[in-house]
C-alpha cells in the first residue's frame, strides 16, 4: 500500500491519478493540503476519508509512513500567462514550505517526492526556479530527474505541457520518468474537423491546436471563465465557433464529468469551477507516474552532460552537483486518443457570442495570425452584419 500526501492539492488531480493506477487496495491518500476553500470543498467531497489541512505554511509534519509527497505548487509567478515574478514571487515562492516539511522528515526521508509545474520555469531567469529546486533537493540528500510532458500522451485532446520533477533518496527516478518514450505525436492520427484556439488573444498568439484545445486556463475566482474556443469547419453557419462546457473541461483534464460539481450555488456561471479545473494536474499524467513508481523500468534515453548555459533542457537528471541532459520526447506513451469532437458535442455546445467573435476578429485582423485555410473566412461569414 502506497501512502500519499498532497501539498497544493487543488482538486486532487495527482491523487486521482494514483487511485486510477493503483486502485483502492494499492494507494491511500492520507493528507491533502489546500488553502482555497472552493478546492477544499471538492477534496472533502471526493476524498471523504482524507485529512484536509488548510495551509501549507502551518503544516508542522506529515503523517507517519508517507511514501509519496506530491506538490503541484502555484505557477502564477512562473507561467508566461502569469506575473513572471519568478520563484521568489508571493505565490510560487510558497514552494519553500515543501522543503521545510522535508527537512522536518530528516530522520525518515521520504521514498518519493513529486513536483509539477509549467515549462516556463526552465527558461525564466535562465531557469532560476529549477536551480533553486535542485539545490534544495540535493541539500537534503535527494537525487532527482525531471521531464517535460504533453498531456495529449494520456489520450486527452488538450495540448498542455508540464514539467514533472521526481526525487528520491534510495530509488532511481530515471527508472520512472525515462522508462517510456513513444516519440513525438503523429499528426496523421489527428482529425481535421476541429481546431482549438483562444478567442481572448489574436494579436500575439492564438494557442492554436489541431484536434485539441490549447492549455486550459484558470479563469477567475469570481466565476468568470476563460475557456478556449473551438472552430468546427463542418458546422452550420452560426455554429462553427463553439466553447466547451465546464463538464467538457473536466474531461479534457482527465477527470470524470462533474468532478467539481459540489457547490450549492450555481448561479454565477459555474462559480469557481473553471479556475479549479484550469489549475488542476491532468489525471493521466500522474496515473503514468504512479504506474511506473509501482513497476520501475530501464531508462531508454540518450544522455550527455549539461554545461549549465542558458535555459534548462526539457529533460534532465542529476545528483551531487552533476546535471545530465536527456534526449527524450514529451510523449512517454500514446494512450488511445479521444478526438476533440468525441469530448465536445458540436450540436449542443455553446456558441461563441457575436460580441466575443467580433472582438477576436478586431484583434486578429490587425496581424498575420489565423491563416489556416477557411478560418478567417468563416469568422467573417458568421459575423455577417455585425461588422458591416
TrEMBL record:
GO terms for biological process: DNA restriction-modification system; methylation; negative regulation of gene expression via chromosomal CpG island methylation. GO terms for molecular function: DNA (cytosine-5-)-methyltransferase activity; DNA binding. Its EC number is 2.1.1.37. Keywords: Methyltransferase, Restriction system, S-adenosyl-L-methionine, Transferase. This is Cytosine-specific methyltransferase. PROSITE patterns: C5_MTASE_1, C5_MTASE_2, SAM_MT_C5. It comes from the Bacteria. It catalyses: a 2'-deoxycytidine in DNA + S-adenosyl-L-methionine = a 5-methyl-2'-deoxycytidine in DNA + S-adenosyl-L-homocysteine + H(+). The keyword Transferase applies. Belongs to the class I-like SAM-binding methyltransferase superfamily. C5-methyltransferase family. It comes from Mycolicibacterium chitae. The keyword Methyltransferase applies. The active site is at 75. Pfam families: DNA_methylase. SUPFAM superfamilies: S-adenosyl-L-methionine-dependent methyltransferases.
